[in-house]
Amino acid sequence: MTDTVTSIIPLLAVLVSLAAVVPILLSRKRPNLREGWTFAAGLTKLGLVYAMVGPVLSGKVLTYRLVEVMPGISVAFRVDAMGLLFALVASILWLATTAYAIGYMRGLNEHSQTRFFSFFAVALSATIGVAFAANLFTLYLFYEMLSLATYPLVTHHQDQEARMSGRKYLTYILGTSIGLVLPAMIITYHLTGTLEFSPGGILAGHVSGPLLTMLILMFVLGFAKAAIMPMHGWLPAAMVAPTPVSALLHAVAVVKVGAFSIFRVMTGIFGTGFLLSQHQNQLIIILAAVTVITASLIALTQDGLKRRLAFSTIGQLSYIILGAALLSPKGMLGGLLHIAMHAFGKITLFFCAGAIFVATGKKNISEMAGIGRRMPITMIAFLIGAMSVIGLPPTGGFISKWYLVLGTLEADQPLMLAVLLGSSLLNAAYFMPVFYRAFFCPPEESGFADRFNEAPVWCVAPLVFSSLMSLGLFFYPQPFFNLARLAVQAFTG
Amino acid sequence: MIWQIDLLILTLIVICGFCTIVVKDLLGAAVIFGAYSFLMCLLWTEMGAVDVAFTEASVGAGVSTVLFFAAVHRTTRHVKMKPSGRLMGKTIGLAAAGLMGCVLLYATTDFPSWADPNSPASTHVSPRYITGTIPDTSVPNMVTSVLADYRGFDTMFETAVILTAGLAVLIILGQTGNRSPLPISRLPQGPITQGYDDTIIRFITRIMTPFLQLFALYVIAHGHHSPGGGFQGGVILGATFILMSISYDLRMVTNRFNERTNLLLANTGLLIYSGIGALCLILGANFLDYSALAKILPGTTTITARSEAMLGVEIGVALAVMAIVILIYNNLVSNGTYENGL
Amino acid sequence: MLEFILAKYNYWIYILIMMIGLYAMLAKNNLIKKIIGMGIFQTAIIIFYVSAGAKRGGTIPIIEHAHGAEGNAVDVLHYINPLPHVLMLTAIVVSVGTLGVALALALRIYGRYNSLEEDEILDRIDQDETATETTGALPTTMIQS
Amino acid sequence: MINPEQYPILIVIVPFLSAFFLSITGCFKRSLCRPIALLALFGAAAAAVGSLHRVITTGIIHYRLGGWPPPFGIEYVIDHLNGLVLVVITLVALLAAIFSGKSVERELPGKEPLFYALFLLLVVGLLGMTITGDAFNLYVLLEISSLTAYALIAIGQDRAIHASFNYLIIGTIGASFYLLGVGHLYIMTGSLNMADLASILPQLYGSKAILTAFLLILIGVWTKMAFFPLHTWLPNSYTYAPTATSCLVAPLMTKVAVYIMIRMMFSVFTPAYVFHHLAMAPVVIWMAIAAIVGGSLLALSQRDFKKMLTYLIVAEVGYMVGGIWLANRLGITGAILHIVNDAFMTLCLFLAAGTIIHRTGGHHFDNLKGLFHQMPLTMTAFTIGALSMIGVPPTAGFFSKWYLILGSIQAGRYEFVAALLFSSLVNAVLFFRLLEISYFEKPPHQENTAHGPVSMVAEAPLTMLVPLLVSAITLIVLGIYSGELVTKIIQFAVPAGI
Lengths: 493, 342, 145, 498
Hints:
By secondary structure, chain B is mostly helical. In chain B, 69% of the residues lie in helices and 0% in strands. Chain B has 13 helices and no strands. The longest helix of chain B has 32 residues, at 302-333. The radius of gyration of chain B is 23 Å and the shape is globular. Chain D is mainly α. Chain D has a domain at 280-444 and 456-498. The radius of gyration of chain D is 22 Å and the shape is globular. Chains B and C meet through helix 1, helix 2, helix 3, helix 4 and helix 6 of B and helix 1, helix 2, helix 3 and helix 4 of C.
C-alpha cells in the first residue's frame, strides 16, 4: 500500500502562479520586472513540483485538504504519480513558454502584455490544480477556472475574428462542462455520496446498463477540452490566439487537461476493473479511433500551419484517450507517456510556427517554401518535433506510441493497431511536406533570400530546448516512465 | 345586533360598490365611494365595531373622499367611454374575480356561522383581552388596550405606515431639480387670496373649527373609556385644517403648517411612540413593556403605568396622523406645488 | 333556511364586494377607477374580519362600569371580540396610506402623459420609446427633468 | 453594555428610530442624513450578527414585545433560518446604503433626507417581516416595505411612475390576499401567533377554509416575490427605478418573500400538510420551471442590461420556489442557501450595473462598449457576479445550484434538473454577450467636449467601488465557506420531518 502524507506543497504549487498575478499587475509599468516575476513564479513552481517527485516515486501520496465546501466534498489536493507526471510536464513547459512569450510578444509589439501574462499565470495555476485534484469537484473547479482564464488569452487580439473564436471556444468548453460534466458529476455524487478519486473507482456496484453508458458519454464528451469529435470545433478556432497561447495551452495545458480529466475519471471514478467488467470501453475506443483518423485526414487539407497543428493535436489527444480506453496496463502506460511526449513534440512545432510568424509574418504552409535556408535552426527543430509526434525514433514520441501499440495487442484490439499505424502514416504525410519544401524546394520557388535570419533569440532558445528535450526523452525517459508505470500500477492494483 | 339592518346595509353596500365602478364621472364615483364608506361605517356600528366605525367615518368617508376630490380636481373627471384594447384586461379581471369568488365561496362552507359566540375567534385568544383589560391595564376600552398595549407593536408600525405614506407622497410629488424639497417655508407668506368668497361657509367654518378641534382632543384623551383614540382624533384634527383650506384657501393652512412643520410633527409623533417603547427598554424591560415606566411615573403602579403610557402613545399617534393627513392633502391638492388648492 | 342565509350572508357579501374590487383593479382602464377598486377590495377584507369578530348577544367592547365596581367578573360572552377591530383599524390606516400614494402616482402620471386612461398612457410610452430609438439617442435620462 | 437579550428588538428598532431622527435632522442639516443611515444600518447589522451567534450557540430566541406572552402579545422569534436571513438583509442594505451616496446625489438631488428615511423604513419593513412570529404583524411590515418601495421606485426615470403604479395595484392585491388568508386562519382558529397557529391547525387540516387560507397566503406571497406568471410588475419597476433603489430592492424584496413562503409553509403549516395532504407540489414545480425558462428566455430578448437582470430575478425566484417544493432536505437546503447567495449575487450585479449607469448614463447594451478597458475593477466584479449567476465554482451560485440539482435528482424531478441546467447555459450566453460587448467593442466616441472633459469614462468613485468589490469577494467567500454555512446554520433551518 502507498502511504499518504499530508503536505502543503501541492497547495503551494497551485497557488504560486496565482499569487504571481499580484506582482505582475503591480509591475505593469516595468516589463522587465514583470517578466522577472513570471520567471520567478515558474522556477518556484517547477522546484515545488520537482520536490514531490522523490517522495511520489518512493510510493508516497501527498495530500492536502483545503476546505470542505459541501458534506463529503472538499477542495483537496492529492499528488499521485499520474498527476505529478502531468504537473511536471506543464511546469517545465511553462518556463519554456514564458521565455518564448517574451520574445514573441515583444517581437510583435503586442498590446496588453500585462493582462496576457497575468492570465497566463492563472491558467497555469488552474492546470496544476487539475493535475493535483483529489476529487472530481476540485478537478471541475480548476477545469472551469482554466476555461475562463484562457478566454482573454484566446481573444487577445480583441478583433472580430477573436470575438467569434472566443464565442465558439466558450460555447464548446463552458457549454459542455455545465451541460454534461456538471450533471454527470451530480449524478455520481447522488449515487455514491462521494467524489474522491480512488484507484479502484467509486461507481462500481452503483450503476450499470444504459445509465452507465450515459455517464461515460457525458464525461467523455463533456470534457470538451480533450476535443474528441464532435467536440473538437473550438480547437482550430482558438488558433487565433497569439502563438505562445496556442503552444502552451492548446498543445499542452488546456487540451491535456481535457485528456487528463477523462483519464482521471475513467480510472478514479469508474475504475478500470469496473469498466472492463461492464464492457463499456468499446464505445470510447471507437470515438477515439474515429477522431484519430478523421483529424489526421483533415489536417492534410489545411494550409494554415497553426490550423494543421491544431488538427494534429485533436488526433494526438485521442491517442491518449484511446490508451486509457484500452484499459490494458501497457495501453494506459502509453497513454500517460503520450501526455508528456506529445507535449514536448507539439510545443516545439507551435514554437516553430510562431517563430516563423515573428520573423517573416507568414502563416500558411504554401508560403513557406525555402524557408529552411533562412531559418535552419527553427526548421530542424520542427523536424524533431514532427518526428516525435509521428512517433519515429530517436524521439520521445516513439516510446509512447510503442506502448500504445503494445497496449492494443494486449487488449486484443487489432483494428486499433491498424488505426494507430495508419494514423502515424497520415501524420508523416502532413508533416513531412512542410519540412521537405522548407529545405528542398527549388530556389526559384523560394520566397526567401538565402540570408540567415532567425527569429529573436528569446523565440529560438525555447524551441531548441524543447526539441532537445524530445530527443533526450528517447534516451532518458526514466522520470516520466517511472511515474507513468507507478500510476498504472495504482490503477490496476 | 339587528340582522334586518345588517342585511339592508350590506345590500346597499353592494349597490354602491357596483355604481362606483360603473359610473362614468370620476367626481360622481368619488361621491358614491364616500357614501359607500359611510354605509360601511353604519355596518361596523351595527356589528358593534364602534372604533372601526369611528375610524372609517373619519378616514374612509372623510379624508379618503377629500383626497379623491383633490386628485380629480388636479386631473380630470372625465372617463373615456370606449377604451381600446381592454378585452384582455377584462377577461383577466373577470377570470380572476370569478376564480377568487369560487375559492372564497368554497371556504365559507366551513366557517362557523356568523356571530356565533362559540366560534374559535370568540373563544381562543380574545377572552383574555375581554377579561384582562381591567386587571392588566385598567383601560375599559379593550380596543384601546389591545391596540396600544397588547398589540402596541403593530400599532407603532401602523403609525409608521401613515408616516411612510406621507413621505412617499412627498417624494413622489415633490419637485426636484430647480428647488430643494425641504425649504424653511415652501411659499412666500403672502396674503390669503380671495378665491370663492362664500361668507356663510367661511363663517361657519370659523365657528366650528375650535369645537371640532376640541372634540378631537377629547377623542384622543378619552379613548381609554369610549370609542376613539389617537388615530381618530388625529384624523379629525387634520380634517379641521383641511376644512379650513377648502373654505378659505390652501395658503391659510400652509402658512400655519408648512412642509417642515408637518414633517417635524409627524416624526416627533413617531419618536414619542417609539421613544416610550425604547424608554421601557432602557428601564430594563422589554420594548414597549409599559409596566417598567412605573419606576419613573410618579404615583403609578405597574398597571396604571400602562394606562398612562397608552395615553402617551396615543398622543404621538395623533400628532403623526394629523400632520401626515394635512401633508398628503396639501400635496395632492396642489400637485406638490403648494400654490393653490381646491 | 333563514338561519342558513343569516349564518353566511355577511361572508357572501364580502366575496361579492371583493370580486367587484378585484375586477375594477384589473380590468378598468381609468387609473382613478382602479384606485377606487382598490379601496373597495380592501374594505371587503374589513367586512370579513369584522364579521368574524361579531358575537351574538355581545355588546361593544368597552367594559361597563369598569371602575368602581371592582370584583365584578367580566363575562366573556357579554362583549364582542375586540381583536378583529384592532386589526382592522390597522387595515383602514394602511388602506388610506396606500390610497394617498396611489393618488400621488396618478397625479404624476397625469402630469407626464396628460391622461388617466391606461391605453393612452401605454401608447404614449410606446411613442417615447420609438422616439428615442429613431433619434438614436441613448437612454441617458437618468436625471429626471 | 447592551443586554444580549435585547438584540432581537434592536435589529428592528435601531433603523426604525433612526429613520425619524434622520427625517428630523434632515430638516436642518441635510448632510447628516447619510451618516445617520449608515450608522443605523451598521447597528442593525451588528445586532443581527449577535442574534445569529446567540441562536447558533444557545438555540432559538423568543422575544416578547410589551412583555405579553404569546399568543396574546406579539412575539419575535429568531431561529437559524431567519437569523441568517436577517444578517443577509442588514449586510446587503448596509452595502447598498454605502453605495447609494453618489448616485442619490446625482439622480435625486435635494431629496436625500426623504430618500434615506424611506430607505431605512424599507429595511425596517423587510427586517420586521423576517423576524416576527406573528402573522398579522407581518402584514403591517409588508405594507411598510411595499409603500416605501412604491415611492422609491416611482422617483426613477419617467417610465418608473407607471411601473410603480402597476406595482402598487398588483402589490396591494398580493398583500390583501395575504391578509385575507390570515383572516381565514383567524376565523378558524382565533389566533394570529404563528407558533400557536401551528399547534392548533393540525386538527383542522381537513377544513376547506384552511386550504383556502393556505392558497390565499401562497398566492399573496407569490405576487410579492414575482413568481411566474405573477411577475409582470417586476421588470419595469426595477429597471426604471433609481439606481440606489434598485440596488436595495432587487436583492432583497423577492428573497424576503421567499423566506415568508418558507415560514408559512413550515412554521405555520407543516411539511406533512403542504407536501402530503395537498398534492400540489408537481404543479408548483412546473410553475417554477416555467419561471426559470420564461425568465431566462425573456432576459435573452432584452437589449437593456438592467432589464435583463430583472428578468433573471424572475428566473431565480423559480429556483428557490422549486427547490422548496422538491420536499426534501437537499432541495430546501439549496433553496435557503440560494436565498443567501442570490441576495449577494443580485446585489453584486446591480451594484455593478449601478456603477456603469453612474458613469455612462444609461443602461442599454451600447453603454457597455469598451468598459473593460475603462472600468476594469467594476467589470471584474460584474464578471464574478455573472459567474456566480451562471454557477461556476468557486462562486456561491454553484453551490446552491448543486444542492438544488442534487435535491431534484433525489426527488426524481429530472425536468427541474433540465430547467436548472438550461438556465445556467442561458445565463452563460447572456452574460458573455455583455462581457463580449464590453471587452471587444470600442467605446462610443464622445464629442461634446464643450462642457468639459467627458471623453473618457473612468473607474467609479470609491464609495461605489468598495461595496461593489466587497459584494464580489463575498460571493467567493460564501462559495468557499458554503459547507460551513450549511452544517452550522442551514441544516438546522430545514424543518424537521423532511
